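I'm stuck. Protein, please.
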Amino acid sequence: MQVLNIADKTFRSRLFLGTGKFGTPQQMEEAVLASQSELVTVALKRVDLTTDSDTLLAHLQHPGVHLLPNTSGARNAREAVFAAQLAREALETNWLKLEIHPDPKYLLPDAIETLKATEELAKLGFVILPYIHADPVLCKQLENAGTAAVMPLGAPIGTNKGLRTFDFLEIIIEQSKVPVIIDAGIGAPSDAAKAMEMGADAVLVNTAIAVAGNPAKMANAFRLAVEAGREAYEAKLGAVLQHAQASSPLTSFLEL
């Protein structure tokens, strides 16, 4: 499987993980290790930035696992930029998953504020991975603003509904010059495999793994699905046809 390059990092795994909703920090740690993910996102609001021994972060200290702080909870560009600066100071990383969702019911991203924050954060030297709706026009605007990748949603956060935005994701993948990471809504390993088969560069999964009966086992299932989907994409899928086409020649061997 080809490696994935984003900004100054190279990833062998194309499965990224969220760290919320796990029953215990130990469950989260086991799932991260089982997934073999190299990039895990952490909500700043869940981290105690006043100490060097935060419980959550202690369970993520493994070789090859990079932290991607996110601005979940930010309601506008001003709050997101402030949170990003705090994260850079506390966690010593300029990587950022930019999340701005003012509506607490559906947690849908604010396109205008996200673009505004991306423009400002790019000037401040951040590597920005914005969480957005599956909007091809916005993706090109973010690309021009200096984003390192785009993270369009498959469905609203935490719903496990899968790739409800399939048609728009296809357009984004076709047009994008930066990596496309499908984020939010992926509810089953088959959703992840489908996203990879269609050409996504990676997927980010949280809820589907965290709320599973066995999170570590589900994380491994997602790892296998992502690898299978990517292998299928690289092998190039056969064309979809409208009419039947025999897989063997229709010869006249039955004719006497």
